[in-house]
């Protein structure tokens, strides 16, 4: 790596949304930032990849809170010289298929969604009203906790104490507890909790505040998709970093933090290069930071233990699909689809020999992207995802790729067949247009993103995580900061806020640019 200076204001480790946003925000304030990424391309889970003339984005199917009048969009515009083009998905952004019941379409804005649900469940008007009130209250409660993490400890503690009743009610209870208080209609309860895969929090164990915050953020304006796919986000944000004299390098693994006199003073890369900085921001995940980067003698064992006590989020299998032909005529839409073949929504795939994954998600990303050119063959892309448990692949985790043997090959074939069979069941006419398929397992996620146990959403979203003081952006180790989804919530908007609030913790001048 050819870095043109020996010392930086900040080094950011990991080029996901949170790392890029923290780096771009600090660059806007005049800091010179070095961004280091272990993977071969920059952008973390926002990166695009191609096969046989088809293109996918690794970790974006829709973006919330990106309406023209929304705060997150205004902040993104401030971070970039030219705006990132975000295309609306239209009125309906999610379609729920729960057991054999007729599909339920989820539309924006809130009032439209309420009306649709009330038509679907005519006897449940009060429960539906109560649900939307709970979502607003849950979002506010999470906001209190997150803001407190970026404030000085005493100020944050007072703001949490002031709102302690709301925090107890919405953060410390699970989605299932809140849902069961509102309705005993199992189909409605399933509809309330069906989008849990947007942040990985199963209804029985997730803090309701995460559920409210993530699914609630789609209600005002629906979903948006970046024109050109997720990589356009990196192109825009990296330009801001470089314009200020910063640099961003892919293919550079940070091996350790360098500490002197109890303070982080830089990093050492896997190539043995020592790079100095006033401050270091880790965007690789809180657990990954304490497990992989901290040197001996850091002096903050209680903080490390508290992070290690938080579990990992779910992992997933993907089947990437390439189509040739008129996929809209065959039934594809911009709306995503949530598939629950048995009607049970609180489930993940634990046993691949049971070839019906209990919880899946389908998206046709190329239809959402106005910059996508399908060409004369009308080439389009889709993806079917099954939410899963790491135990499905754990036995091969310690074996390098290429050496995993015939049984792993058979396992992948079994996964591919199971996912494609489900795709054929729900979308028979589209299945006939498939000309390309490739399966990805949680082992690929672990290798590409570095996330422990393939947990692409980071830490588990339990009440324990929400209440943990260990996830502050400014860590107890001097000079070390955390950014990204683990300090706020899973998803691109969560990672964006993780980057912004990390920047505020380093340079309070950032606060005036947050609005609201
Ligand atoms: C299949 C899938 C679908 C998704 N769909 C959506 C969606 O529709 N909408 C949405 O909002 N979110 C979605 N997400 C989630 C979203 O992509 C993530 O929540 C978000 O990108 C996390 O951003 P981050 O910056 O916190 O971390 P990441 O993007 O995970 O970035 C961490 C980076 O750190 C790097 N790194 C790790 N260790 C090191 C090291 N030692 N040295 C240098 N670099 C290192 C990694 O390579 C990685 O690039 C999806 C994710 C997946 C996988």
TrEMBL record:
Keywords: FAD, Flavoprotein, NAD, NADP, Oxidoreductase, Signal. The keyword Transferase does not apply. InterPro entries: Amino_oxidase (IPR002937), FAD/NAD-bd_sf (IPR036188), Retinol_saturase (IPR052206). Residues 17-358 form the Amine oxidase domain. It is an enzyme of class 1 (oxidoreductase). Its EC number is 1.3.99.26. This is All-trans-zeta-carotene desaturase.
